[in-house]
Design a protein that fits this description.
CATH architecture of one domain: Sandwich
Distance between the termini: 67 Å
Number of strands: 24
Shape: globular
Helix content: under 10%
Largest sheet: 8 strands, mixed
Mean pLDDT: 85
CATH class of one domain: Mainly Beta
Radius of gyration: 24 Å
CATH superfamily of one domain: Cupredoxins -  blue copper proteins
Structural class: mainly beta
Strand content: 25-35%
Length: 430
């Protein structure tokens, strides 16, 4: 990126700062003289490139943050601000985030890098940024009142430190009014690549942030007072069918980084493959400590990196295995009427409420069928959404599709899988 605002040695000396350039930068940042804000465009999945020793991070439905190099320091600029996020077609939520998005853009650095992170506060209240899992100097830890004052409205502050001898998946989020700010979506990935290239390089490297929301039917803003009864569950602040599919080539070594800053633990399950947990936010797991699983538990406040070889072509579900986490808002608070004979009830109620449907006598599949024909509350998604090549995919929330193909080009979405003849389950003729 072009450097338009570089500091000169003369400027630093002229500042008269007792502690040198660092103090000068802090004063500049607080005075609002941070680098110009660069609004990154949403990234499309990019082809594998091992020339730099690692594959680029793919944040589905998100982006990676650009930086500029100034005198050997990587500079990033985070802007904490209100944002609007489309969870899926038909639902837009008034959130808070960074650089116009939630989760915020993924930050990528390398072990040993010196980084300078400007943070501008455009929220209506003070904030801070904590670099979750990184072992950095205490004064850069971002805990309001403990390690720093809050970043007041309109201020720009700067965090500067050297990336320690760590690599893996970390996160950033506020430690100021967390009840509101994190409930509204203020979080993002902080990825540290290793200095040394791997002997078995990763071909596709995905980063998925897990989160929960309480967006009451007919409303637009999350409710930060809800502690348990959430009704929206997201991958990178999107719900199925708005979640971007994970496209890989047969034989690719795939890594998926899961981060959880929600208020629930999430057992994330993959179909058709077994993966190994290779790292947490506490460090890498030795090969002898890894074992194959199809489900990884991602506890609250942690990251989990999993790896696998995509050796089974097809369209494979990838989802949280908490059943109500693969549903949307209208799945909640519905009376259980399974097994109840509702004969005649529907007609009687329709005389008072035209359009009423008696649901749930034999299960809840009607919710999927009615979603296309019966409008619900404003800005509220039905319980189950999305269509596949065989009909309704009765899922919502934390659900996406892993698409493994022999002939995929440029990792663009190849459409639905073409099953070989005789390989699909079928109705029995007997």
């Amino acid at each position: 990126m072009e450097v338009t605002d570089m500091l000169t040695r003369r400027e630093i000396l002229a500042s008269g700062a007792a502690v040198g350039a660092s103090a000068f930068l802090i004063r500049r940042a607080r005075a609002g003289e941070a680098p110009p804000i660069k609004r990154p465009k949403l990234d499309a999945p990019r082809p594998t490139n091992h020339s730099g020793g690692h594959a680029p991070i793919i944040t589905p439905n998100g982006s990676s943050m650009p930086f500029r190099a100034v005198d050997g320091v990587k500079e990033f600029h985070l802007v904490a601000e209100p944002v609007e996020r489309e969870f899926a077609d038909g639902m837009t939520v008034k959130c808070w985030g960074y650089n116009g998005q939630t989760p915020g853009p993924t930050i990528e650095v390398t072990q040993g890098d010196r980084v300078r992170l400007f943070v501008t506060n455009r929220l209506p209240e003070r904030t801070s940024v904590h670099w979750h899992g990184l072992f950095i100097p205490c004064g850069m830890d971002g805990v309001t009142g403990l390690t720093q004052p809050g970043i007041q409205v309109g201020e720009t502050w700067v965090y500067e430190f050297t990336i320690p001898d760590q690599h893996g998946s970390f996160m950033y989020h506020p430690h100021a009014d967390e009840m509101t700010q994190m409930a509204f979506g203020m979080m993002g990935f902080f990825i540290v690549h290793p200095k040394e290239a791997r002997s078995n390089p990763i071909d596709r490297d995905f980063a998925i942030m897990l989160h929960n929301w309480a967006v009451h039917p007919g409303t637009y803003r999350p409710d930060p007072a809800v502690m348990v009864d959430f009704n929206m569950w997201t991958f990178n602040s999107r719900v199925f069918p708005g979640t971007e599919h994970l496209v890989v080539r047969t034989g690719d070594r795939v890594r998926v980084r899961f981060g959880n800053l929600s208020m629930w633990n999430h057992p994330i399950h993959v179909h058709g493959h077994a993966w190994k947990v290779v790292a947490t936010d506490g460090g890498q797991i030795h090969e002898h400590g890894q074992w194959p699983e199809t489900t990884v538990l991602v506890p609250v406040g942690t990251t989990r990196d999993v790896e696998f070889i995509a050796d089974n072509p097809g369209d494979w579900a990838l989802h949280c295995h908490m059943s109500h986490h693969t549903m949307n808002a209208m799945a909640h608070d519905i009376v259980n009427t399974v097994g109840v004979d509702q004969s005649g009830v529907e007609q009687k109620i329709q005389s008072l409420l035209p359009g009423y449907m008696a649901m749930g006598q034999d299960g809840m599949e009607e919710m999927q069928d009615m979603s296309a024909n019966m409008p619900g509350p404003e800005n509220t998604l039905p319980m189950m959404m999305g269509d596949g090549q065989f009909g309704n995919i009765e899922m919502g929330g934390m659900f996406t599709v892993l698409k493994v193909r022999d002939d995929v080009e440029n990792y663009e979405d190849p459409g639905w899988y073409k099953f070989p003849d005789g390989s699909i389950a079928r109705k029995s003729d007997t």
